Amino acid sequence: MKIERIATISLIIVTLLWGTTFVVVQNAIEFVEPFTFNAFRFILATLILLPFLLRRKQKNGITLKQVLITSGIGFMLFSGYLLQTFGLIYTTSSKSGFITGLCVVLVPVFLYVFYRERSNWATVLACFIALFGLSFLTLGNRLSVNIGDVLTLFGAIAFAIHIILTGKFTKQMDALTFTTIQLATVGIFSTISAFIFELPKAPLSKDLFTNSTFIFAVIVTAIFCTSIAFWVQMFAQKHISSTKAALIFILEPVFAAITAVVFGGETLTSHTLIGGTFIVGGMLLSEIPMPKRAKNVKEEAIYKEM
Description:
Layout: H1 3-20, H2 22-28, H3 34-55, H4 64-87, H5 93-100, H6 103-115, H7 121-138, H8 147-169, H9 175-197, H10 206-209, H11 212-236, H12 242-249, H13 252-262, H14 270-286, H15 297-305
């Protein structure tokens, strides 16, 4: 099996984990606010990876420049969570899911604008098909725009930039190191945000640490949805394009909807069925191998000058 196929399957499994544990996170934030939950989740995930990192012999030392760049990429991930969280105060979860999913088309646009990289036309078409499916899955007839939608859009931009920068820099660093620094960055900034924007006594509450729902959610998301999931993402983006990674991530609401129907007792609506079909169809389209176009010498020279 080609390494690209392994990377694709691995990233789909990660997205499956994120989608199927969405209800676990929802249950947990009934007892604790979002930044506090993310602080516990990402700090625990960092502590889980840290022993592996310390025992691992690096071929080359980690430079200060690499730490700063990786921390900056981690801050973009945190910014996405920050803006998405504040956006949810003013907009609905369904609209937030759709707008966040816009990163699937923002990634190829940003890649061309900033790096002059052209994505495969079939992959770009697959992104638009998947986005159309996401609109069925989440929007319904709600087309109004408010401040929450704008904040969420900036969050989607942050997520898109994170995906692109991950694809660029994960090839230059060890995946475990790259992951650990990013998770630590998100954990630190989530902790700071929790004390600024949320009730300062909540994280210190004795009842919180005896709440089985909260403890279960933190452990499950920290181990499977954070430390392992982001480690796998760093590995996968070494071998597949950022555009394809963004397309895979749009499967998350599909997995979340399936989980809600199977385990949550929700009704399978026509919007859910149609939307899910288009998203999966877009994903399958991206897997179809495209014939390589022959390029003459003049075209190659023009491309190299870009």
